[in-house]
Amino acid sequence: EQELEVLAYRKDLTQEFLRRFGSDKRVLNSYNLKKHLTLNPKMPTSISLKFIGQLFTFDVLAVMLVPSVPPEIRVAGEEQLCRKLAQLSLGEKLTLAKRANTERLLGMLLDDNNREVVAATLTNPFLKESIVCSTVRRSTIKAHLVELLALNSRWSCRYDIRYALLRTRHITLGLALNFLQGMMSKDLRDLSNDPYVSMQVRNYIKSNLSKLSTDKKKSF
């Protein structure tokens, strides 16, 4: 089997050869061979789609992290991990939170009930501002995500994230004060009349509008 594993890694094989190889009984009966073939970017997509559904969580993630993996395989891997997420142990979730590389999966991890998982996700190098904003805007947003973002120097300086956080039901006036200074006048007026913003924050904005407003977005 070791020789077959070396063969499975080779990138100079034709798709027709890999198609026949992927149908070999020795491959079908070997987890490692199926894993190695799925990692081979030359593998026919139809066969890789069959194999990826049989891989363990972090082997699926390893496939998704290959830059040349076909989009269909990446989507199938993401779907599989999203389905498994609720059943994973805390340790598995923490590892996934630090290494996941797709928008849907990262969004689900940011929305997790466990504070540790969310904190780990915020350190993920693949996490983008757009994913954070869309998660903050969900009705399911958790209080610990609001607090962690407010205290996170990487994310709390982003204007759009600050604005989204101000519209959550979990924001306290104490945290809001850090975000309000330097907001654009138009945005402050919108927030002061926004029913999604807490009454306490709205009243504070109305009372301090002239002191808080600025003509342009600031970087903090």
Task: Describe the structure in your own words.
The chain is an all-alpha fold and 220 residues long. It is built from 16 helices and no strands. Mean pLDDT is 92; it is low at 216-220. The relative contact order is 0.06. The chain starts with a helix and ends in an 8-residue tail after the last helix. Among the domains are: 1-80; 149-220. It is elongated, with a radius of gyration of 23 Å.
Question: How does the SSE layout of this entry go?
Answer:
Blueprint: H1 2-9, H2 15-22, H3 25-28, H4 31-39, H5 45-52, H6 57-64, H7 71-84, H8 90-99, H9 103-110, H10 115-121, H11 129-136, H12 143-150, H13 159-166, H14 173-180, H15 185-192, H16 199-212
Q: Return Rg in Å.
A: 23 Å
Low-confidence stretches: 216-220
Tell me the overall shape. elongated
The run of helices and strands is HHHHHHHHHHHHHHHH
Quick synopsis:
The chain is mainly α. Helices cover 63% and strands 0% of the residues.
